[in-house]
Amino acid sequence: QEEKIFAGKVLRLHVCTMEGAEWLEEVPEDTTVEKLKERCLKHCVPGSLEDPKTVTHHKLIHATSEKVLTDTKTVLEENIQDRDVLLLIKKRAPTLLPKMADVVAEEKRKQEQKAPDKDAILKATANLPARSVDRTVTHHNMRDFQTELRKILVSLIEVAQKLLALNPDAVELFKKANAMLDEDEEDRVDEIALRQLTEMGFPESRAVKALRLNHMSVTQAMEWLIEHADDPSVDAPLPGQAPAEAPAEGAASSAEAAAGPSSEEGGEEAKDELTEIFKKIRRKREFRPDPRAVIALMEMGFDEKEVVDALRVNNNQQNAACEWLLGDRKPSPEDLDKGIDTNSPLFQAILENPVVQLGLTNPKTLLAFEDMLENPLNSTQWMNDPETGPVMLQISRIFQTLNRT
Predict the structure, then answer these.
(1) In the prediction, which pLDDT does 161 show?
(2) Composition bias, kind Low complexity: at what positions (predicted)?
(3) With a threshold of 0.70, does the pTM exceed it?
(4) What are the chain's domains?
């Protein structure tokens, strides 16, 4: 009776094996995990206790906490509750250590498959006859596509202009293109942001300048205006941008060009008008330096013109422009306007491609070439365009093919 009175609490545990067997075990909470494991093995593996190693080769895992139960601890010490689920599994056999002979053979095989280093190559080729190879020329022939693309575009623009001049509708097409460029997003100012600044009392011209310098951010523009309130050059136009009167003149020129020739004028006058429109489009596509980069580089002591040249050569990247200014300044800005040799195999292969030939008769292709010429970062946009993308893809493929030969 005393044993029954002072006996520990009996727990009903749900035990499972990896083979899918399941049963209930009722054990007092002071039972050790090792004793519980023996009872489980008697239930599922008959005759297993004849080998004393069988118990040590199995372990019990608490299913909820995924904890491996310690043999010397009791069920209570392992904090096992009534109706908990336990998993009985056999321990994995320890991996056998590899034999020394196998290790040596594996290392030898790896050494045989290893690529030779520079010293081994020089030793193996020491007795080979020398050949006159100009490494400088070889390196120069590995031309950078982006650098060469600019030369290709300069020459292709000339070809496209000549082809489009033969189109009777070319003047009208390029008048529309010229009008589209009049709505350039970069010239626009956020009207709401501008109104907020002018309502604070800032002059409109200063507010416009501050917004352009700070990417249309009202907060940053306001901080800039307060910081430069006493700056004598605060009302000066941004570097690389024309004064306010220039756009009006350009608009007047566009209006004059839009008038167009009368039906009685000859084809020669229409051709001259088309040439003028080409010039206007080129002027609108002129390079626009990043005002912040211009100011930062000018503060370092460089002249405004050479700063603009540096940013143009280096696609508005301030750090690269600074290195160009401090270095040998190559390529020069004049090199950017040079086209490719029209008699070269590369240019001839490009002109003979049917996709390129068809694209050169499309005014949008010419506009794309002009845009990429002055804004190389826009190349991705034109590569993804359904009309100009195939032309750019063919130019790239032809260049890569001829550059490998």
Answers:
(1) 79
(2) 242-264
(3) no
(4) 10-90 (3.10.20.90), 142-183+336-404 (no CATH), 186-228 (1.10.8.10), 291-335 (1.10.8)
